[in-house]
């Protein structure tokens, strides 16, 4: 079967969906190929821009501060690619990067405002939402259900963590202990923190509850009533001003449920950042897919790009495979946003690290060839540390237009662009920069793709 | 000597040490076990669990005979933690069979008492029917059967049974010296790593079962002991990729094997003489390739399997020079230092009970006590009866798969775990999905089996040993441990970091394929979301994390 479009996006996470939506909104017919679930759907939903410099231990106070540091210190970072644009003056590099990231995130915030995953936070300062472990992390934007501004501001705020019996992903008692110890150590409020456990039987089950099941349960009208009744006693007894839930308040109606809970007790309610399976990650994924489809883009789930046709330095066709068919799609440009190892954009074995669709050159975080590195050689002895694991900085290297380049530094094709975590030069886990890089590079790559198509036309 | 608190202090909680403490306690001695880390935390915890018929040691007929009778004893006292692996030696040319033909007779001589068939040749068709992954050019196979025990549970059950017989078990207590009078040991000085205190206990005798540290313990007491330390590495695959065990000759003519083991498959081993600190050893690229290339000659598609980690241990061999590792006797030595200490060198897992009996015989003789060994007759806890998984599944509403895995660890004792779910139905929640393990068993283990860390829970329950390598259970199990032991928030985070560090030790050397995605996810959870890479908790770097 043959299909036709202006732009093919390979990969359905943040980078691909941002790129696809913008392409489609600008009037370009767009097909997005998604093999399986994206890493975005596994994420906590927090849109990190830049939390820490590699190996640093002090977080940046704002994305702007972080990006200024990237511009000055990390020339190989995906954010820095923006600064190499032909129209960027040498003394304007940092501003160009900051400007583009701000533009991308504002676009994202505006676009998501009417979805199930509206965002709060600002580009002017990082926030420090709480996680299900009771720790905090710096990030730029989170979903509106996932942060309370007043918690730390009010001297006399009292926080109650609420967990559920039979739901192993979250322990309210240990999260409360961890968070309180942290507050005491830095001398910040709240100074009173506790935990409680609520009973729940979504679909008649009282154990082995998953985040998704609880969220679906809360999406049913009136199922929140039972929780209100149980929580009322706990809130009154503890004198709580704030209640923190694991991120399960609903896939569709989290905001409504938050509002109902807040009205019932006169307290602020918010969700914590959590681990996969992640309800906020799925909300973000579904919201982004909604934007793409609404803009007229064609989302093809379960389709894996497997090869391509090239003519005169241009990719003219992408061949995609689904369980029962193979498609040939004619295109004018391609955006490769297939992710890192989770997404399958990169694969590695004892012979080296590969990009499986186009067999692009891969590089390490230091831009040495990664085509024949043994993955374990690019790791540190310590598992969890600010130094991270360098193998996760491997990926593709691109020109100022975000086009993957060959060994000689020249673009591999005039109309192939890359975005998101397939790019080399950063470790999103330690930097806390994942979805920010994805959004910004997706935004930038598609702008270049559009320009390229216009130029050709 | 009469006012000693203990008759005997056993140093080392491996297979031999726990067997000794059990034997001593069952013979009525006042017994203490001191282990510097956890039960089964060193050599035995890195072995394949084979209670070998002694096939590799056919040059030593007495040892083969002893191995065989020990298999019979273990099957009597611990059959609930024992599995049988049929094993094939696929032959691609006849030279292998011709050069090693005598092992068939040696193996078959004692086969009947172990209730296994005599070793036999089978056709290529039968070979490929049993295991279709074998190279199609196979011309014949040798078929035989070996038994495998859960080495962690064996050690733990021996320790728990010793406790049931009055012994005291102390883990995280490292021996640092001895009190002596006229060259005789009168007391043992140890550092308690949990309390941070140095303590002394008086004793009449000491049994040194410290495995690869036995020479150091002997030296601390003023005695001399030679050991030959030998590193062995396994590569672990994510599931039972073969139906039966496969053994092949490696590039250097040594035998290596691929054995289905619990939910995984073990590929091992290497043998390298070592003088390193055993705590710092990790697998090397050469060892991993040696194993993969060796097995690849018979199972050509082996690299398509998902490697989840590597595992490294150190064999404390009898100190023979001028012989390769596999020609060193697998017999053991019991050495009386004539200073109140008795030490072991050599031995195999299968012989641990026999070694204990030999040493305890010396102990009782020295103490002037007449008490017979019964360790080969009395079942270990959980082996009292059969367990009806189907009935239990219906009664408690838990999947048969979960219960079968629990049975393989606990036998009849699993009923005590399941009883907990009557008052706490939510404890039926699965915490480790790979194994799987339910919350009730984790809480039962914490309350009854003295774990201090998640790593100790791994040894008791196989927590975090599956394909995800603890990605999804580390934080859940850490919360349960914190709740049960009433730990502070900092301890909770340290427990998570410790367990990630221990898993990473084995993941890192072989990380490739799907395990790259798995580790990206783990980093995403614990560093990116949890921000634990920035945590300022008091984390002690592990021995293998230090240096460059």
Number of domains in the coordinates of chain A? 2
Beginning-to-end CA distance, first to last residue of chain A: 26 Å
Number of helices, where a helix is a run of at least 4 consecutive DSSP H or I residues of chain A: 13
Average pLDDT taken over every residue of chain A: 96
Radius of gyration of chain B: 23 Å
CATH architectural label of the largest domain in chain A: 3-Layer(bba) Sandwich
Task: Please state the average pLDDT score of chain B.
Answer: 95
Instruction: Tell me, briefly, the overall form of chain A.
Output: globular
CATH topology of the largest domain in chain B: D-Amino Acid Oxidase, Chain A, domain 2
Order of helices and strands of chain A: EEHEHHHHEEHEHEHHEHEHEEEEEEEEHH
Give me the CATH superfamily of the largest domain in chain A. FAD/NAD(P)-binding domain
Q: Give the number of helices of chain B.
A: 17
For this structure, what is the CATH class of the largest domain in chain B?
Alpha Beta
Count of domain modules of chain B? 3
Helix percent band of chain B: 25-40%
Largest interface: A-B, 68 and 62 residues
Amount of helix of chain A: 25-40%
**Beta-strand content estimate of chain B:** 15-25%
General form of chain B:
globular
Q: Strand fraction band of chain A?
A: 15-25%
Number of strands of chain A: 17
Task: Characterise the protein shown here.
- The complex is a heterodimer of chains A (457) and B (548).
- Helices cover 33% and strands 17% of the residues of chain A.
- With 457 residues, chain A is of the alpha/beta class.
- The two termini of chain A are 26 Å apart.
- Chain B is of the alpha+beta class.
- Chain B has 3 domains: 6-43 and 152-225 and 329-367, FAD/NAD(P)-binding domain (3-Layer(bba) Sandwich); 82-147 and 228-327, 2-Layer Sandwich (D-Amino Acid Oxidase, Chain A, domain 2); 389-545, no CATH class.
- Helix content of chain B is 35%, strand content 23%.
- In chain B, strands 3, 4, 5, 6, 11, 12, 13, 14, 15 and 16 form a 10-stranded mixed beta sheet that branches. In chain B, strands 1, 2, 7, 8, 9, 10, 17 and 18 form an 8-stranded mixed beta sheet that branches. In chain B, strands 19-20 form a two-stranded antiparallel sheet.
- In chain B, strand 13 and strand 14 (264-268) form a beta hairpin.
- The longest helix of chain B is centred in the last third of the chain and has 19 residues, at 489-507.
- At the A-B interface, helix 7, strand 15 and helix 12 of A face helix 8, helix 15, helix 16 and helix 17 of B.
């Amino acid at each position: 079967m043959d299909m036709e479009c202006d732009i093919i996006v390979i990969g359905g996470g943040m980078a691909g969906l941002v790129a696809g939506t913008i392409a489609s909104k600008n009037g370009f017919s767009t097909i997005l190929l998604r093999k399986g679930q994206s890493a975005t759907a596994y994420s906590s939903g927090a849109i990190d821009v830049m939390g820490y410099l590699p190996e640093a231990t002090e977080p940046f106070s704002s994305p702007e501060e972080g990006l200024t540091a990237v511009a000055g210190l990390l020339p190989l970072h995906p954010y820095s690619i923006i600064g190499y644009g032909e129209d960027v003056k040498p003394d304007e590099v940092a501003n160009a990067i900051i400007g583009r990231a701000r533009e991308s995130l504002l676009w994202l915030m505006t676009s998501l405002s009417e979805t199930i995953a509206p965002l709060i936070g600002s580009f002017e300062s990082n926030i420090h939402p709480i996680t299900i472990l009771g720790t905090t992390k710096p990030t730029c934007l989170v979903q509106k259900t996932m942060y309370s501004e007043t918690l730390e501001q009010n001297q006399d705020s009292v926080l109650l963590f609420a967990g559920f019996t039979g739901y192993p992903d979250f322990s309210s008692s240990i999260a409360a202990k961890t968070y309180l110890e942290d507050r005491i150590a830095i001398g910040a409020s709240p100074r009173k923190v506790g935990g409680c456990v609520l009973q729940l039987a979504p679909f008649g089950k009282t154990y082995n509850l998953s985040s998704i099941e609880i969220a679906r349960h809360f999406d049913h009208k009136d199922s929140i009533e039972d929780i209100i009744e149980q929580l009322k006693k706990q809130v009154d007894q503890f004198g709580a001003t704030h209640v923190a839930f694991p991120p399960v308040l609903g896939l569709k109606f989290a905001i409504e449920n938050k509002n109902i809970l807040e009205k019932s007790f006169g307290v602020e309610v918010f969700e914590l950042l959590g681990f996969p399976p992640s309800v906020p990650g799925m909300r973000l994924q579904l919201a982004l897919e909604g934007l793409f489809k609404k803009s007229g883009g064609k989302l093809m789930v379960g389709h894996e790009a497997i090869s391509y046709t090239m003519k005169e330095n241009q990719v003219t066709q992408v061949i995609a495979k689904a369980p029962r068919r193979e498609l040939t799609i004619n295109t004018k440009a391609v955006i490769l946003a297939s992710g890192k190892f989770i997404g399958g954009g990169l694969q590695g074995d004892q012979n080296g690290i590969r990009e499986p669709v186009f067999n692009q050159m891969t590089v390490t975080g230091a831009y040495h060839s990664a085509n024949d590195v043994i993955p374990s050689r690019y790791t540190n002895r310590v598992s969890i540390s600010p130094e991270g694991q360098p193998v996760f900085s491997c990926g593709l290297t691109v020109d100022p237009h975000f086009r993957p380049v060959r060994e000689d530094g020249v673009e591999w094709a005039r109309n192939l662009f890359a975005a998101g975590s397939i790019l080399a030069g950063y470790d999103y886990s330690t930097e806390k920069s994942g979805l920010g890089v994805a959004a910004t590079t997706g935004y930038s790559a598609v702008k270049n793709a559009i320009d390229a198509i216009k130029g050709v036309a | 000597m009469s006012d000693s608190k203990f008759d005997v202090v056993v140093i080392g909680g491996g297979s031999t040490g726990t067997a000794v403490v059990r034997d001593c306690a069952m013979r009525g001695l006042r017994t203490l076990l001191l282990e510097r880390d956890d039960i089964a935390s060193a050599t035995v915890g890195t072995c394949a669990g084979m209670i070998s018929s002694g096939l590799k040691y056919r040059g030593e007929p007495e040892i083969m005979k002893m191995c065989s009778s020990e298999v019979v004893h273990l099957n009597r006292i611990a059959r609930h933690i024992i599995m049988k692996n049929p094993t094939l030696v696929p032959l691609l040319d006849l030279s292998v069979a011709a050069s090693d033909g005598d092992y068939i007779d040696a193996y078959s001589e004692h086969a009947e008492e172990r209730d296994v068939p005599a070793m036999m040749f089978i056709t290529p068709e039968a070979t490929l029917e049993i295991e279709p992954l074998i190279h199609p050019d196979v011309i014949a196979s040798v078929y035989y059967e070996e038994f495998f025990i859960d080495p962690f549970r064996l050690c733990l059950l021996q320790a728990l049974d010793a406790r049931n017989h009055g012994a005291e078990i102390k883990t995280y207590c490292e021996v640092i010296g001895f009190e002596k009078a006229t060259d005789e040991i009168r007391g043992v000085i140890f550092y308690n790593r949990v309390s941070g205190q140095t303590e002394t206990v008086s004793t009449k005798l000491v049994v040194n079962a410290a495995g690869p540290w036995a020479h150091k313990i002997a030296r601390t007491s003023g005695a001399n002991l030679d050991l030959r330390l030998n590193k062995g590495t396994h590569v672990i695959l994510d599931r039972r990729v073969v139906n039966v065990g496969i053994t092949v000759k490696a590039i250097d003519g040594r035998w290596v094997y691929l054995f289905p083991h619990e939910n995984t498959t073990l590929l091992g081993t290497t043998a390298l003489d070592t003088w390193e600190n055993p705590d710092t050893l990790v697998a090397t690229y050469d060892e991993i390739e040696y194993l993969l290339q060796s097995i690849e000659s018979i199972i050509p598609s082996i690299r398509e399997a998902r490697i989840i980690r590597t595992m490294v241990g150190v064999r404390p061999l009898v100190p023979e020079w001028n012989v390769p590792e596999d020609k060193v006797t697998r017999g053991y030595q019991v050495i009386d230092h004539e200073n109140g200490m008795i030490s072991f060198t050599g031995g195999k897992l299968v012989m641990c009970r026999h070694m204990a009996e030999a040493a305890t015989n010396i102990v009782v003789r020295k103490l002037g006590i007449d008490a017979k060994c019964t360790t080969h007759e009395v079942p270990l806890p959980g082996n009292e009866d059969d367990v009806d998984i189907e009935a239990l599944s219906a009664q408690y509403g838990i999947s048969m798969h979960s219960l079968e895995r629990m049975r393989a660890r606990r036998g009849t004792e699993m009923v005590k775990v399941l009883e907990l779910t009557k008052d706490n139905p939510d404890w039926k929640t699965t915490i480790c999905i790979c194994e799987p393990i339910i919350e009730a068993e984790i809480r039962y283990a914490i309350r009854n089996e003295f774990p201090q860390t998640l790593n100790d829970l791994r040894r008791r329950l196989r927590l975090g040993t599956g394909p995800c390598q603890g990605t999804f259970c580390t934080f859940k199990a850490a919360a349960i441990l914190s709740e049960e032991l009433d730990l502070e928030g900092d301890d909770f985070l340290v427990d998570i970091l410790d367990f990630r560090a221990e898993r990473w030790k084995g993941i890192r050397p072989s990380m490739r394929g799907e395990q790259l995605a798995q580790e990206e996810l783990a980093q995403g959870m614990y560093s990116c979301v949890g921000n634990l890479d920035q945590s300022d908790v008091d984390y002690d770097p592990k021995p293998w994390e230090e240096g460059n």
